[in-house]
Amino acid sequence: MATDVPRVADSAAVRPLRRKRPRPADALFHAAVLSAVLIALSVLAWLGVSIVQSGWATLTWDFLTDPVSSRASRAGFNSALRGSLVLMLLTFAVAIPVGFAAAIYLEKFAAIGREQLLSTAYARQRRLHEMEADGTGGAALVLRRVGVRAAFAWSRIGPPVNRAVEVNISNLAAVPSIIYGLLGLAIFVTFIGLQKSLLAGGLTLALLVLPIVIISSREALRAVPVSIEQGAMALGATRWQAVSRQVVPAAIPGMLTGTILAMSRALGESAPLIVVGGVAFGTQVPSVNPLDANETPLFAMPLQIFDWTDRPQEAFQELAAAGIIVLLVVLVLMNAVAIFLRAKYSRRW
Q1: What is the enclosing helix (H) or strand (E) of 288?
Q2: Residue 197: what are its φ and ψ, rounded to 5°?
Q3: CA-based Rg of the chain, rounded to a whole angstrom?
Q4: Which of 21, 237, 273, 334 is least surrounded, with the fewest CB atoms within 10 Å of its CB?
Q5: What CA–CA distance (Å, rounded) separates 251 from 131?
Q6: Which pairs count as long-range contacts for 5-13, CB under 8 Å and 24+ apart, including other chains?
Protein backbone atom coordinates (compact mmCIF):
# COMPACT_ATOMS: atom_id res chain seq x y z
CA MET A 1 0.00 0.00 0.00
CA ALA A 2 1.39 3.28 -1.04
CA THR A 3 2.03 5.71 1.78
CA ASP A 4 2.11 9.44 1.48
CA VAL A 5 5.69 10.07 2.63
CA PRO A 6 6.96 13.60 2.14
CA ARG A 7 9.97 13.78 -0.10
CA VAL A 8 13.34 14.67 1.36
CA ALA A 9 13.72 17.56 -1.05
CA ASP A 10 10.44 19.06 0.13
CA SER A 11 11.25 18.63 3.82
CA ALA A 12 14.77 20.03 3.35
CA ALA A 13 13.63 23.03 1.37
CA VAL A 14 15.33 26.03 2.82
CA ARG A 15 13.21 29.03 3.24
CA PRO A 16 15.06 32.24 2.41
CA LEU A 17 15.96 34.28 5.41
CA ARG A 18 14.38 37.60 5.79
CA ARG A 19 16.81 40.34 4.94
CA LYS A 20 17.74 42.15 8.07
CA ARG A 21 17.18 45.85 7.90
CA PRO A 22 20.37 47.76 8.68
CA ARG A 23 20.33 49.95 11.71
CA PRO A 24 20.53 53.70 11.08
CA ALA A 25 23.96 53.93 12.69
CA ASP A 26 25.32 51.13 10.46
CA ALA A 27 23.86 52.73 7.35
CA LEU A 28 25.35 56.09 8.28
CA PHE A 29 28.78 54.57 8.90
CA HIS A 30 28.64 52.66 5.60
CA ALA A 31 27.72 55.85 3.73
CA ALA A 32 30.52 57.80 5.42
CA VAL A 33 33.15 55.18 4.56
CA LEU A 34 31.94 54.90 0.98
CA SER A 35 31.99 58.69 0.60
CA ALA A 36 35.55 58.87 1.91
CA VAL A 37 36.69 56.22 -0.56
CA LEU A 38 34.98 57.97 -3.47
CA ILE A 39 36.47 61.35 -2.53
CA ALA A 40 39.97 59.85 -2.26
CA LEU A 41 39.63 58.05 -5.60
CA SER A 42 38.25 61.19 -7.26
CA VAL A 43 41.17 63.31 -6.05
CA LEU A 44 43.64 60.63 -7.12
CA ALA A 45 42.03 60.39 -10.57
CA TRP A 46 42.05 64.17 -10.95
CA LEU A 47 45.75 64.32 -10.04
CA GLY A 48 46.60 61.50 -12.43
CA VAL A 49 44.72 63.03 -15.34
CA SER A 50 46.19 66.49 -14.77
CA ILE A 51 49.73 65.08 -14.56
CA VAL A 52 49.31 63.05 -17.74
CA GLN A 53 47.83 66.03 -19.61
CA SER A 54 50.69 68.27 -18.48
CA GLY A 55 53.62 65.91 -18.99
CA TRP A 56 52.65 63.49 -21.76
CA ALA A 57 53.89 65.75 -24.58
CA THR A 58 57.28 66.16 -22.84
CA LEU A 59 57.74 62.43 -22.28
CA THR A 60 60.00 61.62 -25.24
CA TRP A 61 63.05 59.44 -25.72
CA ASP A 62 65.30 62.51 -25.53
CA PHE A 63 63.77 63.32 -22.13
CA LEU A 64 64.82 59.88 -20.85
CA THR A 65 68.34 59.97 -22.32
CA ASP A 66 69.44 63.62 -21.96
CA PRO A 67 71.28 64.79 -18.82
CA VAL A 68 69.99 67.55 -16.60
CA SER A 69 70.33 71.11 -17.89
CA SER A 70 69.51 74.62 -16.73
CA ARG A 71 67.57 75.16 -19.98
CA ALA A 72 64.17 73.52 -20.02
CA SER A 73 64.42 72.73 -23.74
CA ARG A 74 67.56 70.63 -23.15
CA ALA A 75 66.82 69.20 -19.72
CA GLY A 76 66.42 65.44 -19.40
CA PHE A 77 65.82 62.81 -16.76
CA ASN A 78 68.79 60.54 -17.46
CA SER A 79 70.92 61.63 -14.48
CA ALA A 80 68.02 61.09 -12.06
CA LEU A 81 67.21 57.68 -13.54
CA ARG A 82 70.83 56.53 -13.22
CA GLY A 83 71.07 57.85 -9.67
CA SER A 84 67.89 56.10 -8.56
CA LEU A 85 69.08 52.84 -10.16
CA VAL A 86 72.34 52.92 -8.19
CA LEU A 87 70.47 53.88 -5.00
CA MET A 88 68.16 50.88 -5.35
CA LEU A 89 71.10 48.52 -6.00
CA LEU A 90 72.91 49.76 -2.89
CA THR A 91 69.77 49.65 -0.75
CA PHE A 92 68.95 46.14 -1.96
CA ALA A 93 72.49 44.88 -1.36
CA VAL A 94 72.53 46.15 2.25
CA ALA A 95 68.92 45.68 3.37
CA ILE A 96 68.43 42.13 2.05
CA PRO A 97 71.20 40.23 3.91
CA VAL A 98 70.92 42.25 7.12
CA GLY A 99 67.12 42.25 7.16
CA PHE A 100 66.73 38.56 6.33
CA ALA A 101 69.36 37.51 8.88
CA ALA A 102 67.77 39.64 11.61
CA ALA A 103 64.31 38.28 10.81
CA ILE A 104 65.49 34.65 10.90
CA TYR A 105 67.29 35.17 14.20
CA LEU A 106 64.45 37.04 15.91
CA GLU A 107 61.74 34.66 14.70
CA LYS A 108 63.47 31.30 15.02
CA PHE A 109 66.32 31.59 17.51
CA ALA A 110 65.73 34.58 19.77
CA ALA A 111 62.38 33.18 20.91
CA ILE A 112 64.21 30.50 22.95
CA GLY A 113 63.51 30.90 26.66
CA ARG A 114 65.99 31.22 29.49
CA GLU A 115 65.60 27.59 30.52
CA GLN A 116 66.63 26.37 27.07
CA LEU A 117 69.60 28.74 27.06
CA LEU A 118 70.67 27.44 30.47
CA SER A 119 70.40 23.81 29.33
CA THR A 120 72.64 24.64 26.37
CA ALA A 121 75.14 26.32 28.70
CA TYR A 122 75.18 23.29 31.03
CA ALA A 123 75.71 20.98 28.06
CA ARG A 124 78.75 23.02 27.03
CA GLN A 125 79.99 22.94 30.62
CA ARG A 126 79.77 19.14 30.70
CA ARG A 127 81.75 19.00 27.47
CA LEU A 128 84.36 21.29 29.09
CA HIS A 129 84.70 18.93 32.07
CA GLU A 130 85.16 16.00 29.70
CA MET A 131 87.96 17.86 27.90
CA GLU A 132 89.66 18.67 31.21
CA ALA A 133 89.36 15.02 32.31
CA ASP A 134 90.92 13.86 29.03
CA GLY A 135 93.84 16.22 29.54
CA THR A 136 93.03 18.43 26.56
CA GLY A 137 94.85 21.74 26.73
CA GLY A 138 95.92 24.63 24.58
CA ALA A 139 93.76 27.03 22.62
CA ALA A 140 90.86 24.59 22.29
CA LEU A 141 90.40 24.42 26.06
CA VAL A 142 90.66 28.20 26.41
CA LEU A 143 88.07 28.75 23.68
CA ARG A 144 85.79 26.19 25.31
CA ARG A 145 86.02 27.99 28.66
CA VAL A 146 85.27 31.33 27.00
CA GLY A 147 82.31 29.77 25.22
CA VAL A 148 80.91 28.35 28.47
CA ARG A 149 81.17 31.72 30.24
CA ALA A 150 79.56 33.46 27.27
CA ALA A 151 76.73 30.91 27.19
CA PHE A 152 75.92 31.44 30.89
CA ALA A 153 76.12 35.23 30.48
CA TRP A 154 73.83 35.14 27.42
CA SER A 155 71.31 32.97 29.29
CA ARG A 156 70.91 35.83 31.77
CA ILE A 157 70.83 38.85 29.45
CA GLY A 158 69.67 37.28 26.18
CA PRO A 159 65.87 37.20 26.63
CA PRO A 160 65.50 40.85 27.79
CA VAL A 161 67.90 42.05 25.08
CA ASN A 162 65.90 40.22 22.40
CA ARG A 163 62.65 41.71 23.67
CA ALA A 164 64.15 45.21 23.62
CA VAL A 165 65.36 44.71 20.04
CA GLU A 166 61.92 43.53 18.91
CA VAL A 167 60.15 46.53 20.46
CA ASN A 168 62.62 48.99 18.94
CA ILE A 169 62.32 47.48 15.45
CA SER A 170 58.53 47.81 15.60
CA ASN A 171 58.85 51.45 16.68
CA LEU A 172 61.49 52.29 14.05
CA ALA A 173 59.07 51.32 11.26
CA ALA A 174 56.91 54.33 12.19
CA VAL A 175 59.70 56.92 12.48
CA PRO A 176 59.45 59.78 9.90
CA SER A 177 61.86 59.45 7.01
CA ILE A 178 63.57 62.78 7.66
CA ILE A 179 64.85 61.37 10.97
CA TYR A 180 66.63 58.67 8.99
CA GLY A 181 68.15 61.43 6.87
CA LEU A 182 69.58 63.09 9.97
CA LEU A 183 70.82 59.69 11.19
CA GLY A 184 72.50 58.94 7.85
CA LEU A 185 74.12 62.39 7.79
CA ALA A 186 75.50 61.90 11.30
CA ILE A 187 76.75 58.31 10.82
CA PHE A 188 77.87 58.00 7.21
CA VAL A 189 78.96 61.57 6.38
CA THR A 190 80.10 63.10 9.68
CA PHE A 191 81.34 60.04 11.61
CA ILE A 192 82.54 57.61 8.91
CA GLY A 193 83.60 60.37 6.52
CA LEU A 194 81.82 59.40 3.33
CA GLN A 195 81.14 62.09 0.76
CA LYS A 196 77.65 63.43 0.20
CA SER A 197 77.23 60.91 -2.57
CA LEU A 198 75.13 58.05 -3.87
CA LEU A 199 76.84 55.70 -1.39
CA ALA A 200 75.74 57.75 1.62
CA GLY A 201 72.23 58.06 0.16
CA GLY A 202 71.96 54.32 -0.52
CA LEU A 203 73.08 53.41 2.99
CA THR A 204 70.60 55.91 4.45
CA LEU A 205 67.75 54.40 2.43
CA ALA A 206 68.86 50.92 3.58
CA LEU A 207 68.43 52.10 7.18
CA LEU A 208 65.01 53.47 6.26
CA VAL A 209 63.66 50.21 4.82
CA LEU A 210 65.41 47.83 7.21
CA PRO A 211 62.62 47.74 9.86
CA ILE A 212 60.01 47.10 7.13
CA VAL A 213 62.10 44.28 5.63
CA ILE A 214 62.57 42.66 9.04
CA ILE A 215 58.89 42.87 10.00
CA SER A 216 57.59 41.57 6.65
CA SER A 217 60.17 38.76 6.62
CA ARG A 218 59.18 37.71 10.14
CA GLU A 219 55.54 37.54 9.06
CA ALA A 220 56.51 35.37 6.09
CA LEU A 221 58.52 33.02 8.33
CA ARG A 222 55.64 32.87 10.83
CA ALA A 223 53.27 31.80 8.06
CA VAL A 224 55.20 28.55 7.49
CA PRO A 225 53.63 25.81 9.65
CA VAL A 226 55.80 24.82 12.58
CA SER A 227 55.10 21.15 11.78
CA ILE A 228 57.51 21.40 8.83
CA GLU A 229 60.35 22.48 11.10
CA GLN A 230 59.43 19.88 13.74
CA GLY A 231 59.23 17.15 11.10
CA ALA A 232 62.71 17.96 9.83
CA MET A 233 64.11 17.93 13.38
CA ALA A 234 62.34 14.61 14.07
CA LEU A 235 64.23 13.12 11.13
CA GLY A 236 67.56 14.11 12.65
CA ALA A 237 68.18 17.61 11.34
CA THR A 238 69.54 20.27 13.63
CA ARG A 239 67.51 23.41 14.26
CA TRP A 240 69.66 25.42 11.87
CA GLN A 241 69.36 22.75 9.15
CA ALA A 242 65.57 22.64 9.55
CA VAL A 243 65.27 26.43 9.36
CA SER A 244 67.74 27.01 6.52
CA ARG A 245 66.66 24.10 4.29
CA GLN A 246 62.92 23.87 4.96
CA VAL A 247 61.47 27.01 6.55
CA VAL A 248 63.40 29.74 4.72
CA PRO A 249 62.87 28.33 1.18
CA ALA A 250 59.14 28.10 1.89
CA ALA A 251 59.06 31.69 3.17
CA ILE A 252 61.24 33.28 0.46
CA PRO A 253 58.30 34.42 -1.78
CA GLY A 254 56.69 36.32 1.08
CA MET A 255 60.02 37.75 2.19
CA LEU A 256 60.81 39.01 -1.33
CA THR A 257 57.33 40.49 -1.69
CA GLY A 258 57.73 42.56 1.46
CA THR A 259 61.21 43.59 0.40
CA ILE A 260 60.08 44.85 -3.01
CA LEU A 261 57.29 46.89 -1.41
CA ALA A 262 59.84 48.39 0.99
CA MET A 263 62.08 49.25 -1.96
CA SER A 264 59.13 50.99 -3.60
CA ARG A 265 58.87 53.25 -0.58
CA ALA A 266 62.60 53.99 -0.70
CA LEU A 267 62.40 54.88 -4.41
CA GLY A 268 59.89 57.66 -3.76
CA GLU A 269 61.60 59.18 -0.72
CA SER A 270 63.13 62.63 -1.07
CA ALA A 271 63.37 64.06 2.48
CA PRO A 272 66.25 61.83 3.74
CA LEU A 273 68.19 62.36 0.49
CA ILE A 274 67.87 66.15 0.78
CA VAL A 275 69.25 65.99 4.33
CA VAL A 276 72.16 63.74 3.31
CA GLY A 277 73.13 66.14 0.53
CA GLY A 278 71.20 65.31 -2.61
CA VAL A 279 71.60 67.55 -5.66
CA ALA A 280 69.26 68.28 -8.54
CA PHE A 281 71.73 69.89 -10.93
CA GLY A 282 75.22 68.78 -11.94
CA THR A 283 77.30 68.40 -15.06
CA GLN A 284 78.49 64.89 -14.14
CA VAL A 285 76.43 62.01 -15.52
CA PRO A 286 76.21 59.37 -12.74
CA SER A 287 77.86 56.03 -13.38
CA VAL A 288 75.66 52.95 -12.97
CA ASN A 289 78.55 51.09 -11.35
CA PRO A 290 77.84 50.91 -7.59
CA LEU A 291 81.60 50.76 -6.90
CA ASP A 292 81.87 54.40 -8.05
CA ALA A 293 79.00 55.53 -5.82
CA ASN A 294 81.16 57.36 -3.29
CA GLU A 295 82.54 59.66 -6.02
CA THR A 296 79.17 60.30 -7.67
CA PRO A 297 76.83 63.16 -6.65
CA LEU A 298 73.55 62.13 -5.11
CA PHE A 299 71.05 62.27 -7.98
CA ALA A 300 67.58 60.74 -7.64
CA MET A 301 64.22 61.00 -9.37
CA PRO A 302 62.31 62.57 -6.42
CA LEU A 303 65.03 65.22 -6.01
CA GLN A 304 64.91 66.17 -9.69
CA ILE A 305 61.11 66.39 -9.64
CA PHE A 306 61.22 68.49 -6.47
CA ASP A 307 63.66 70.93 -8.08
CA TRP A 308 61.61 71.32 -11.26
CA THR A 309 58.36 71.89 -9.37
CA ASP A 310 60.05 74.68 -7.40
CA ARG A 311 60.75 76.69 -10.57
CA PRO A 312 58.15 79.18 -11.82
CA GLN A 313 58.59 78.56 -15.58
CA GLU A 314 55.80 76.58 -17.26
CA ALA A 315 58.31 74.42 -19.17
CA PHE A 316 59.84 73.10 -15.93
CA GLN A 317 56.38 72.29 -14.61
CA GLU A 318 55.82 70.12 -17.69
CA LEU A 319 59.20 68.45 -17.12
CA ALA A 320 58.21 67.74 -13.52
CA ALA A 321 54.93 66.17 -14.69
CA ALA A 322 56.83 63.95 -17.14
CA GLY A 323 59.22 62.92 -14.35
CA ILE A 324 56.26 62.03 -12.10
CA ILE A 325 54.87 59.79 -14.86
CA VAL A 326 58.20 57.96 -15.14
CA LEU A 327 58.41 57.54 -11.35
CA LEU A 328 54.84 56.24 -11.18
CA VAL A 329 55.49 53.73 -13.98
CA VAL A 330 58.57 52.40 -12.16
CA LEU A 331 56.60 52.10 -8.88
CA VAL A 332 53.73 50.29 -10.60
CA LEU A 333 56.17 47.86 -12.22
CA MET A 334 57.84 47.11 -8.87
CA ASN A 335 54.49 46.50 -7.20
CA ALA A 336 53.42 44.30 -10.13
CA VAL A 337 56.55 42.18 -9.65
CA ALA A 338 55.72 41.83 -5.94
CA ILE A 339 52.15 40.74 -6.73
CA PHE A 340 53.41 38.26 -9.34
CA LEU A 341 55.89 36.70 -6.91
CA ARG A 342 53.23 36.37 -4.23
CA ALA A 343 50.70 34.82 -6.63
CA LYS A 344 53.20 32.55 -8.38
CA TYR A 345 55.14 31.07 -5.50
CA SER A 346 52.90 31.40 -2.44
CA ARG A 347 51.72 28.15 -0.89
CA ARG A 348 48.55 27.28 1.00
CA TRP A 349 49.27 25.06 3.98
Answers
A1: none
A2: -135, -175
A3: 29
A4: 21
A5: 40
A6: none
Q: At what angle do helices 314-345 and 24-55 cross, to 10 degrees?
A: 120
Up-side HSE of residue 253: CA atoms within 13 Å toward CB?
Answer: 14
What's the full length of the chain, in residues?
Answer: 349
Distance in angstroms (rounded) separating the CA atoms of residues 293 and 311:
28
From residue 125, give the alpha-carbon distance in Å to each of 97, 121, 148: 33, 6, 6
Report phi then psi at 15, rounded to 5: -80, 135
Q: Which amino acid is at 100?
A: F
Is a pLDDT exceeding 60 seen at residue 8?
A: no
User: Rounded distance, CA 73 to CA 316, Å?
Assistant: 9
The predicted pLDDT at position 17 comes to 65
Classify each residue of 226-255 as buried b or exposed e, where b means 16 or more C-beta atoms within 10 Å of its C-beta: eeebeebeeeebeeeebbeebbbebbbbbb
Distance, in Å, from the CA atom of 329 to the CA atom of 225, rounded to the nearest integer, reads 37
Express each pLDDT in 323-337 by its tens digit: 999 999 998 898 888
pTM of the model as a whole: 0.79
Integer angstrom CA distances of residue 39 from 43, 53, 86: 6, 21, 37
Q: Report the candidate in 220, 304, 212 with the shortest Cα–Cα distance to residue 265.
A: 212
Question: What are the beta bridge partners of residue 197?
Answer: 297
d(CA 166, CA 215): 9
CA distance 292 to 327: 24
